[in-house]
Design a protein that fits this description.
133 residues, mainly alpha, 4 helices, 73% helix, single chain
């Protein structure tokens, strides 16, 4: 099989894995409301754990002589998302009185998901072009 076939095949598998989240549509609403907060906490913890226990140590190892740059990029990333959150005013809330209005973020999520999928496709393509094994 050539590289393009592998790229298409594994991109398809990755898309199927991404559809696992649609199982939430089949879960009864009462159970979904009860389990959504622990699931979000688990997802956030997984991301933080991956970043701080795998990605950052690996980048510090690879940038042994430029560790100052790695810390600058880390700080810049935190600052960028902090500013972005305050510009968009996007935060979640557990209040039930609805005393403040929420801006719809559907378009933001759609654009971010499309960008994420585009980058994932580029990554898969580059990976298989470099070495299929």
């Amino acid at each position: 099989m050539n590289s393009l076939a592998y790229i298409i095949l594994f991109s398809f598998f990755m898309a199927l894995i991404a559809l696992i989240g649609s199982v939430g549509l089949l879960v009864p609403e009462k159970l979904l409301k009860k389990s959504i907060l622990p699931l979000v906490a688990y997802a956030a913890g997984s991301l933080w754990g991956s970043a701080f226990f795998h990605l950052l140590p690996k980048s510090f190892h690879l940038l042994a002589d430029k560790q100052d740059e790695a810390f600058i990029y880390l700080t810049a990333g935190f600052l960028m998302f902090f500013v972005l959150e305050h510009v968009i005013h996007w935060h979640h809330c557990h209040k039930t009185d609805h005393s403040h209005t929420h801006k719809p973020v559907g378009h933001l999520i759609l654009v971010a998901d499309g960008f994420h999928n585009f980058l994932s496709g580029l990554t898969i393509g580059a990976m298989f072009v470099v070495d299929i094994t």
